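Bench log. Compound arrived from synthesis this morning; before running ITC I wanted a structural hypothesis for how MRU sits in the protein. Inputs:
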Amino acid sequence: MEDYYSLKWMGHSLSMIDQRRLPLEEVYLEYTEPRDVAEAIRTMVVRGAPAIGSAAGFGMALAALQAQSGSSESILRDLEKAGNILKAARPTAVNLAWAINRVLLAAQGVSDVRETVIAEAIAIFNEDVQANIQIGLNGLELIPQNARFIHHCNTGALATSGYGTALGAIRTAHEHGRNVFVYVDETRPRLQGSRLTAWELQKLGIPFKVIVDGASGHVMRTRGVDLCVVGCDRIAANGDTANKVGTFNLALAARAHNIPFYVVGPTSTLDKNSPDGIAIPVEERGADEILTIEGQTIAPIGTPVFNPAFDITPHDYITSIITEKGIFRPPFRESIKMGTL
Ligand code: MRU
């Protein structure tokens, strides 16, 4: 596996790499308070839908460790409070609420609530790593020899409990000798592509070039691109997908050039309660992310900003969704339903 990790359970604390400081500094922070884990999710110390889910699971484990000794009911009340704080940290990635609800459900009606909660958080983490490895294997059939990819945002080990989703599929293809090459969208405004994906690809020894997000159409037209792979923060029941802002533009450019566009992620990112993309809440973040770089102002003082952190790619623009349970093809409402029975 990797010589770094997004997050690791240390028995009584949670260790997470501070992704805001990469690639310049590799610093791990230690968390013992669920409230601080929520803040780490909000400020993007940890980011990427599956990693956020795992972090929230361990946030619940910390809440269980802290809960006043007493009846199971009082521990459950403390857990619900912690769950509400964690859920409010970021709205779009459904893995966050999914993990918290899963932990809360496991804790119902058991005598050893603390042990159960910790075991469930560890299970969420381990299952995510296994799902990602399986996603990579499932994706192999779609990846040709000498494949040239465009990849958006960061979907590697950093964005997950380990291995990665879209980047995991690239990695598996690389490990199977497919001679892959990756054009990496830099991913404005937080630069997850140039800061994090480039860092991970370098460590994996996979050849790549960073491009600005607006270059993807030109790259498709002039360089040749075989496929686009992106992650996902929430997939609605009809296949509409929320992912890092810029994903939809990439899908439009891919459609214009007849290039397959694959969404890659674990089934924990499916939200059957959202019938379509309109139902998915899209996070808006602060103006500073756009108006400053490393604290330096890059626009006139007082410049107004609209900063949606995600966009919705309508299902019509998605060729297939690659999951650990198989490849879902259109019509997605049916294939998702059948694939996740
Ligand atoms: O704002 P971020 O960095 O948390 O957004 C991350 C993404 O959009 C990823 O592409 C998505 O979570 C999939 S990560 C495997």
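What the model suggests: Residues 150 and 183 are 5 Å apart (CA to CA). The chain is about 40% helix and 15% strand.
ITC booked for Thursday regardless.
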